[in-house]
Specification:
With 362 residues, this protein is α+β, with helices and mostly antiparallel strands. It has two domains: 14-158, no CATH class; 163-341, no CATH class. Helices cover 30% and strands 27% of the residues. The protein is elongated. The relative contact order is 0.15.
Protein backbone atom coordinates (compact mmCIF):
# COMPACT_ATOMS: atom_id res chain seq x y z
CA UNK A 1 0.00 0.00 0.00
CA UNK A 2 1.35 3.28 -1.03
CA UNK A 3 1.08 6.41 1.20
CA UNK A 4 1.13 9.74 -0.59
CA UNK A 5 2.51 12.71 1.38
CA UNK A 6 1.05 16.19 0.73
CA UNK A 7 2.66 19.60 1.38
CA UNK A 8 0.97 21.75 4.00
CA UNK A 9 0.59 25.48 3.30
CA UNK A 10 0.80 28.00 6.24
CA UNK A 11 -0.04 31.13 4.25
CA UNK A 12 -3.37 31.55 6.02
CA UNK A 13 -1.83 31.22 9.47
CA UNK A 14 0.61 34.03 8.78
CA UNK A 15 -2.22 36.24 7.64
CA UNK A 16 -4.08 35.58 10.87
CA UNK A 17 -0.98 36.40 12.95
CA UNK A 18 -0.40 39.60 11.00
CA UNK A 19 -4.02 40.57 11.50
CA UNK A 20 -3.83 39.96 15.23
CA UNK A 21 -0.52 41.80 15.59
CA UNK A 22 -1.89 44.71 13.56
CA UNK A 23 -4.58 45.24 16.16
CA UNK A 24 -1.93 45.29 18.87
CA UNK A 25 0.33 47.60 16.87
CA UNK A 26 -2.51 49.97 16.08
CA UNK A 27 -3.46 50.00 19.76
CA UNK A 28 0.13 50.78 20.76
CA UNK A 29 0.31 53.53 18.15
CA UNK A 30 -2.97 54.95 19.35
CA UNK A 31 -1.76 54.85 22.93
CA UNK A 32 1.56 56.51 22.02
CA UNK A 33 -0.02 59.29 19.95
CA UNK A 34 -2.85 59.98 22.37
CA UNK A 35 -0.52 59.78 25.39
CA UNK A 36 1.93 62.20 23.75
CA UNK A 37 -0.89 64.57 22.90
CA UNK A 38 -2.26 64.37 26.45
CA UNK A 39 1.20 65.00 27.90
CA UNK A 40 1.62 68.11 25.74
CA UNK A 41 -1.81 69.37 26.79
CA UNK A 42 -1.02 68.80 30.47
CA UNK A 43 2.22 70.74 30.08
CA UNK A 44 0.27 73.65 28.59
CA UNK A 45 -2.25 73.41 31.40
CA UNK A 46 0.54 73.42 34.01
CA UNK A 47 2.14 76.54 32.57
CA UNK A 48 -1.21 78.28 32.40
CA UNK A 49 -2.34 77.30 35.88
CA UNK A 50 0.98 78.29 37.51
CA UNK A 51 0.80 81.74 35.92
CA UNK A 52 -2.89 82.01 36.82
CA UNK A 53 -2.30 81.21 40.50
CA UNK A 54 0.53 83.73 40.80
CA UNK A 55 -1.39 86.51 39.07
CA UNK A 56 -4.54 85.75 41.04
CA UNK A 57 -2.59 85.96 44.31
CA UNK A 58 -1.05 89.27 43.23
CA UNK A 59 -4.53 90.56 42.43
CA UNK A 60 -5.75 89.62 45.91
CA UNK A 61 -2.70 91.33 47.46
CA UNK A 62 -3.67 94.54 45.68
CA UNK A 63 -7.45 94.28 46.14
CA UNK A 64 -9.30 97.16 47.77
CA UNK A 65 -12.76 97.99 49.05
CA UNK A 66 -13.21 101.54 47.89
CA UNK A 67 -9.77 103.08 48.46
CA UNK A 68 -8.88 100.83 51.41
CA UNK A 69 -6.53 97.86 50.76
CA UNK A 70 -7.78 94.60 52.23
CA UNK A 71 -4.29 93.43 53.24
CA UNK A 72 -1.24 95.04 54.84
CA UNK A 73 -0.82 98.02 57.12
CA UNK A 74 -2.32 96.22 60.11
CA UNK A 75 -5.03 94.48 58.06
CA UNK A 76 -5.02 90.69 57.94
CA UNK A 77 -7.45 88.26 56.36
CA UNK A 78 -8.98 86.73 59.54
CA UNK A 79 -11.16 89.80 60.09
CA UNK A 80 -12.22 90.30 56.47
CA UNK A 81 -15.73 91.64 56.10
CA UNK A 82 -18.08 90.13 53.54
CA UNK A 83 -17.23 93.00 51.20
CA UNK A 84 -13.48 92.41 51.61
CA UNK A 85 -13.85 88.68 51.02
CA UNK A 86 -15.97 89.36 47.95
CA UNK A 87 -13.29 91.75 46.66
CA UNK A 88 -10.62 89.08 47.16
CA UNK A 89 -12.66 86.40 45.38
CA UNK A 90 -13.65 88.68 42.53
CA UNK A 91 -10.07 89.82 41.92
CA UNK A 92 -8.79 86.24 42.01
CA UNK A 93 -11.50 84.85 39.70
CA UNK A 94 -11.19 87.55 37.04
CA UNK A 95 -7.39 87.55 37.01
CA UNK A 96 -7.07 83.76 36.97
CA UNK A 97 -9.43 83.46 34.00
CA UNK A 98 -7.63 86.18 32.03
CA UNK A 99 -4.14 84.81 32.73
CA UNK A 100 -5.18 81.24 31.95
CA UNK A 101 -6.58 82.30 28.59
CA UNK A 102 -3.42 84.28 27.78
CA UNK A 103 -1.08 81.39 28.64
CA UNK A 104 -2.99 78.46 27.14
CA UNK A 105 -1.69 77.91 23.61
CA UNK A 106 -4.76 75.95 22.57
CA UNK A 107 -7.18 78.52 23.89
CA UNK A 108 -9.50 75.68 24.87
CA UNK A 109 -8.84 75.25 28.59
CA UNK A 110 -11.12 76.61 31.29
CA UNK A 111 -10.63 77.67 34.89
CA UNK A 112 -12.77 75.26 36.88
CA UNK A 113 -12.17 76.55 40.37
CA UNK A 114 -10.49 79.44 42.20
CA UNK A 115 -10.31 79.21 45.98
CA UNK A 116 -9.07 81.97 48.29
CA UNK A 117 -8.16 80.71 51.79
CA UNK A 118 -7.03 82.66 54.86
CA UNK A 119 -4.40 80.81 56.90
CA UNK A 120 -3.83 82.15 60.39
CA UNK A 121 -4.38 85.80 59.41
CA UNK A 122 -0.78 86.09 58.18
CA UNK A 123 -1.05 84.16 54.93
CA UNK A 124 -3.53 84.01 52.06
CA UNK A 125 -3.50 81.05 49.69
CA UNK A 126 -5.06 81.12 46.22
CA UNK A 127 -5.67 77.78 44.49
CA UNK A 128 -6.52 77.60 40.79
CA UNK A 129 -7.69 74.47 38.94
CA UNK A 130 -7.97 74.38 35.15
CA UNK A 131 -8.81 71.67 32.64
CA UNK A 132 -9.36 70.99 28.96
CA UNK A 133 -11.67 68.52 27.22
CA UNK A 134 -9.57 66.37 24.91
CA UNK A 135 -10.81 64.10 22.10
CA UNK A 136 -8.43 61.17 21.47
CA UNK A 137 -7.06 60.78 17.96
CA UNK A 138 -7.22 56.97 17.90
CA UNK A 139 -8.59 56.20 21.30
CA UNK A 140 -12.16 56.10 20.02
CA UNK A 141 -11.39 52.81 18.31
CA UNK A 142 -10.95 51.32 21.75
CA UNK A 143 -13.91 53.07 23.37
CA UNK A 144 -12.07 56.11 24.81
CA UNK A 145 -14.12 58.88 23.22
CA UNK A 146 -13.17 61.76 25.53
CA UNK A 147 -11.13 62.59 28.63
CA UNK A 148 -10.44 65.77 30.60
CA UNK A 149 -6.88 66.37 31.86
CA UNK A 150 -6.68 68.90 34.72
CA UNK A 151 -3.99 70.70 36.66
CA UNK A 152 -3.92 72.77 39.85
CA UNK A 153 -1.53 75.27 41.45
CA UNK A 154 -1.51 77.24 44.69
CA UNK A 155 0.21 80.56 45.34
CA UNK A 156 0.58 82.21 48.74
CA UNK A 157 0.62 85.92 49.50
CA UNK A 158 3.44 86.82 51.87
CA UNK A 159 4.51 90.11 53.43
CA UNK A 160 8.19 90.60 52.73
CA UNK A 161 10.29 93.17 54.54
CA UNK A 162 12.58 93.34 51.53
CA UNK A 163 13.00 96.94 50.43
CA UNK A 164 10.50 98.08 53.03
CA UNK A 165 12.60 97.02 56.03
CA UNK A 166 14.45 99.13 58.59
CA UNK A 167 17.54 100.84 57.15
CA UNK A 168 20.70 101.70 59.14
CA UNK A 169 20.50 105.48 58.60
CA UNK A 170 18.99 107.90 61.11
CA UNK A 171 16.57 110.76 60.55
CA UNK A 172 16.50 113.69 62.94
CA UNK A 173 13.28 114.05 64.94
CA UNK A 174 12.88 117.77 64.13
CA UNK A 175 13.35 117.10 60.40
CA UNK A 176 10.74 114.34 60.55
CA UNK A 177 8.37 116.70 62.40
CA UNK A 178 8.74 119.25 59.61
CA UNK A 179 8.28 116.56 56.95
CA UNK A 180 5.13 115.29 58.66
CA UNK A 181 3.69 118.79 58.52
CA UNK A 182 4.44 119.02 54.78
CA UNK A 183 3.68 115.72 53.05
CA UNK A 184 4.84 115.68 49.46
CA UNK A 185 7.74 118.04 50.21
CA UNK A 186 11.30 116.71 50.00
CA UNK A 187 13.55 116.94 53.08
CA UNK A 188 17.19 116.11 53.76
CA UNK A 189 18.65 113.62 56.26
CA UNK A 190 22.13 114.82 57.26
CA UNK A 191 24.51 111.87 57.48
CA UNK A 192 27.77 113.71 57.90
CA UNK A 193 29.93 114.32 60.96
CA UNK A 194 30.47 117.94 59.96
CA UNK A 195 26.86 119.12 59.88
CA UNK A 196 25.85 116.38 62.32
CA UNK A 197 22.62 114.57 63.10
CA UNK A 198 20.21 117.05 64.71
CA UNK A 199 23.24 119.40 64.79
CA UNK A 200 25.12 117.00 67.07
CA UNK A 201 28.38 115.35 66.07
CA UNK A 202 30.68 112.62 67.33
CA UNK A 203 34.16 111.76 66.05
CA UNK A 204 34.12 109.17 63.28
CA UNK A 205 30.32 108.92 63.16
CA UNK A 206 28.32 109.29 59.95
CA UNK A 207 24.68 108.81 60.93
CA UNK A 208 24.92 105.06 60.39
CA UNK A 209 23.45 102.62 62.94
CA UNK A 210 25.06 99.55 64.46
CA UNK A 211 21.79 97.82 65.32
CA UNK A 212 23.22 94.76 67.03
CA UNK A 213 26.32 96.25 68.64
CA UNK A 214 28.62 93.94 66.66
CA UNK A 215 31.68 94.55 64.54
CA UNK A 216 29.47 94.95 61.47
CA UNK A 217 31.76 94.89 58.45
CA UNK A 218 30.68 96.57 55.24
CA UNK A 219 28.74 93.46 54.22
CA UNK A 220 26.32 93.93 57.13
CA UNK A 221 25.61 97.55 56.20
CA UNK A 222 25.08 96.46 52.59
CA UNK A 223 22.61 93.75 53.61
CA UNK A 224 20.70 96.03 55.98
CA UNK A 225 20.54 98.74 53.32
CA UNK A 226 19.12 96.46 50.66
CA UNK A 227 17.01 94.04 52.69
CA UNK A 228 16.37 95.76 56.03
CA UNK A 229 17.66 94.83 59.48
CA UNK A 230 16.32 91.33 60.35
CA UNK A 231 16.38 91.71 64.15
CA UNK A 232 14.22 93.52 66.70
CA UNK A 233 14.61 97.20 67.59
CA UNK A 234 12.60 98.94 70.31
CA UNK A 235 11.92 102.63 70.91
CA UNK A 236 12.56 104.62 72.96
CA UNK A 237 16.19 103.64 73.35
CA UNK A 238 18.63 106.33 74.52
CA UNK A 239 21.63 104.16 73.61
CA UNK A 240 21.11 102.84 70.09
CA UNK A 241 24.70 102.11 68.97
CA UNK A 242 26.25 104.20 66.23
CA UNK A 243 28.66 102.60 63.78
CA UNK A 244 32.08 104.30 64.14
CA UNK A 245 34.14 104.58 61.01
CA UNK A 246 31.41 103.32 58.68
CA UNK A 247 31.04 105.18 55.40
CA UNK A 248 28.38 105.43 52.70
CA UNK A 249 30.76 105.06 49.75
CA UNK A 250 30.87 101.22 49.64
CA UNK A 251 27.08 100.82 49.78
CA UNK A 252 26.10 102.88 46.75
CA UNK A 253 24.81 99.87 44.81
CA UNK A 254 22.55 98.94 47.74
CA UNK A 255 21.39 102.53 48.19
CA UNK A 256 20.37 102.51 44.52
CA UNK A 257 17.86 99.72 45.26
CA UNK A 258 15.89 101.84 47.73
CA UNK A 259 15.56 105.02 45.65
CA UNK A 260 11.87 105.75 44.96
CA UNK A 261 10.90 103.07 47.51
CA UNK A 262 9.12 103.47 50.85
CA UNK A 263 11.45 102.30 53.63
CA UNK A 264 11.81 102.67 57.39
CA UNK A 265 14.41 104.82 59.15
CA UNK A 266 15.15 105.16 62.90
CA UNK A 267 14.16 108.59 64.23
CA UNK A 268 16.63 110.06 66.75
CA UNK A 269 17.27 113.29 68.63
CA UNK A 270 21.02 113.20 68.00
CA UNK A 271 24.31 111.70 69.12
CA UNK A 272 25.35 110.92 72.66
CA UNK A 273 29.13 110.79 72.92
CA UNK A 274 30.59 107.84 74.80
CA UNK A 275 34.16 106.98 75.82
CA UNK A 276 36.72 106.95 73.03
CA UNK A 277 35.11 106.80 69.61
CA UNK A 278 32.00 105.11 70.95
CA UNK A 279 28.77 106.99 70.46
CA UNK A 280 25.05 106.21 70.39
CA UNK A 281 21.79 107.68 69.19
CA UNK A 282 18.75 108.59 71.25
CA UNK A 283 16.09 106.57 69.41
CA UNK A 284 12.54 107.91 69.73
CA UNK A 285 10.69 106.06 66.96
CA UNK A 286 10.59 105.10 63.29
CA UNK A 287 9.54 106.90 60.11
CA UNK A 288 8.27 105.46 56.85
CA UNK A 289 9.68 107.57 54.05
CA UNK A 290 10.03 107.54 50.29
CA UNK A 291 13.70 107.81 49.32
CA UNK A 292 14.11 110.63 46.79
CA UNK A 293 17.84 110.30 46.24
CA UNK A 294 21.19 110.41 48.02
CA UNK A 295 24.75 111.71 47.87
CA UNK A 296 27.83 110.07 49.40
CA UNK A 297 30.39 112.84 48.91
CA UNK A 298 31.89 111.46 45.69
CA UNK A 299 30.72 111.23 42.10
CA UNK A 300 27.28 112.53 41.19
CA UNK A 301 24.11 112.42 43.31
CA UNK A 302 21.63 109.63 42.62
CA UNK A 303 18.27 111.22 41.81
CA UNK A 304 14.83 109.69 42.21
CA UNK A 305 11.45 111.01 41.13
CA UNK A 306 11.14 113.41 44.10
CA UNK A 307 14.77 114.56 44.20
CA UNK A 308 15.16 118.28 44.95
CA UNK A 309 18.30 119.65 43.27
CA UNK A 310 17.99 123.05 44.95
CA UNK A 311 18.07 121.51 48.41
CA UNK A 312 20.98 119.30 47.41
CA UNK A 313 23.13 122.09 45.98
CA UNK A 314 24.56 123.43 49.29
CA UNK A 315 25.66 119.93 50.27
CA UNK A 316 27.22 119.06 46.93
CA UNK A 317 29.10 122.37 46.68
CA UNK A 318 30.47 122.14 50.23
CA UNK A 319 34.17 121.60 50.73
CA UNK A 320 34.72 118.89 51.80
CA UNK A 321 31.50 117.51 50.35
CA UNK A 322 29.01 116.06 52.80
CA UNK A 323 26.58 113.15 52.74
CA UNK A 324 22.78 113.03 52.79
CA UNK A 325 19.63 111.11 51.89
CA UNK A 326 16.58 112.98 50.60
CA UNK A 327 13.11 111.73 51.55
CA UNK A 328 9.41 112.49 51.68
CA UNK A 329 7.29 111.63 54.71
CA UNK A 330 4.76 108.79 54.65
CA UNK A 331 4.09 107.79 58.27
CA UNK A 332 5.72 107.27 61.66
CA UNK A 333 5.31 104.97 64.65
CA UNK A 334 6.88 104.30 68.03
CA UNK A 335 7.25 101.10 70.02
CA UNK A 336 8.84 98.08 68.44
CA UNK A 337 10.19 96.98 65.10
CA UNK A 338 9.81 93.20 64.99
CA UNK A 339 12.23 92.42 62.16
CA UNK A 340 11.99 88.65 62.02
CA UNK A 341 13.77 88.00 58.74
CA UNK A 342 12.43 88.38 55.22
CA UNK A 343 8.73 87.91 56.03
CA UNK A 344 6.34 89.24 58.65
CA UNK A 345 2.70 89.18 59.70
CA UNK A 346 0.21 91.32 57.80
CA UNK A 347 -1.01 92.79 61.08
CA UNK A 348 2.42 93.58 62.55
CA UNK A 349 2.67 97.40 62.81
CA UNK A 350 6.39 97.23 62.09
CA UNK A 351 5.54 95.54 58.78
CA UNK A 352 3.14 98.27 57.74
CA UNK A 353 5.21 99.07 54.70
CA UNK A 354 6.32 95.57 53.88
CA UNK A 355 5.88 94.51 50.28
CA UNK A 356 3.10 92.01 49.60
CA UNK A 357 4.22 89.43 47.08
CA UNK A 358 3.06 86.08 45.71
CA UNK A 359 5.03 82.87 45.62
CA UNK A 360 4.09 79.59 43.98
CA UNK A 361 4.45 76.70 46.39
CA UNK A 362 2.34 73.85 45.02
Amino acid sequence: MRVQLTRRHDDGAIAIIVALLSVVLIGMAAFAIDFGNAYAVKRQLSVAVDASALDAARAVAGAKVGTQPILGGGRGCATWSSAQRAAANSAAQATAAATNAANDLSGASTVDRVTVTCVGDSRVEVEVVNSRSLTPIFGGVFGADNYVPARSATAAIVARLGIGGLKPYVACNTVVDAAEAAPGVTFVMDLDNKIGVCNTTAPGQWGIVDFDGGSNPTGDIEDWTEFGYPGQVFAPNPALPADPGANLGPVRNELDTIVDQVVLFPVVTGFTQGPGNNASFNLVGFVAAKVCGYYVGIGSPTQGSCYDAAKAAPYISANPRVRFIQFQYFDRFTGGYAGGGPTCNFTDPSCKYAILSAQLYR
